[in-house]
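Batch job 17 of 40 flagged for manual review because the log was empty.
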Amino acid sequence: MENLGYTDRADAGRRLAALLRAYARESEAVVLALPRGGVPIAYEIATRLQLPLDILAVRKLGLPGHEELAMGAIAADGRLVLDDALIAAAHVTQPQIAAAIAREGTELQRRSRLYRDGRTERSLEGKIVLVVDDGLATGATMGVAIQAVRAHAPGSVVVAVPVGSREACDAIESLADRLVCGMTPEPFGAVGQYYGDFSQIGDEDVRRLLANAADFAPRFPGRGYRAARLDS
């Protein structure tokens, strides 16, 4: 991929799907999106490869006063990762950490109920799980996501992102069974710098994409088939 970046998340998803074509119509594969930014990308991957799509609720814990910088992350099941070095350097207090965990934990539960809309979580046992987000800056959120998936005994965990920092990709590559990253610019800026349109994704956008993706899920047994829409 050219280092010029992506038009928007849909463009990133289409281009990332081409790198994941080996999983097209794989009966043992499932795509999990980190909401909300990862959902439009995962939607393109799931529909083009004709795979089921679900969400994996994980939230960044923003550094107080610099919320865009992750001091850790939390999953809906309570799994937690903290950047102890950053926390110490920024003199973050335990009450501040506890407040961030409580705030983001409440938001995780809200999103899980809203986005799933009564649908049960998919079984991940023995599955090839493709975990998708719109980029890797520190890798903290994705690290927790991998932990959460591993708890369900998957066959393998594949992380797929359009862009990431070299440091974050190296860290995630050591945790996942495979990492597929569209590009690793040097030097690395904020994830949004590599998208022409990096507009915020709303709750209703997520609900709509998840509902639409159900129409593209495979309805037959089989593996290794190339999706008809892959190169469109």
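Reviewer: the log was empty due to a logging misconfiguration, but the result itself is present. Helices lie at 9-19, 38-49, 84-89, 94-116, 140-150, 166-173, 203-213. Unflagging and moving on to job 18.
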